Amino acid sequence: MAKAIYQLDPLTCPSCIKKIETTLNKTAGVESAKVLFSLSKVKVEFDGSKVNGKELEMKITKLGYPVLSSKVS
User: Fold this and answer.
1) Average pLDDT over residues 18-30
2) Residue 4 CB: number of other CB atoms within 10 A?
3) pTM
4) Of 34, 41, 42, 55, which one's alpha carbon is 20 to 30 angstroms from that of 13?
């Protein structure tokens, strides 16, 4: 299982959390996605054979939340 942490611009609303988590959790290969609102970070556990970190980053960006940095392991 791979893990990724994405640093976002400061999040300003609780609906941001739901939007990001719902989209990522519906993505094939994602085991769990959790937004840390106060830190403006997204933590994702995923199956690297089904989806990669760059694809997940693109999904977050397409929702309107630019990724400032990422760490995939």
Assistant:
1) 98
2) 22
3) 0.94
4) 55
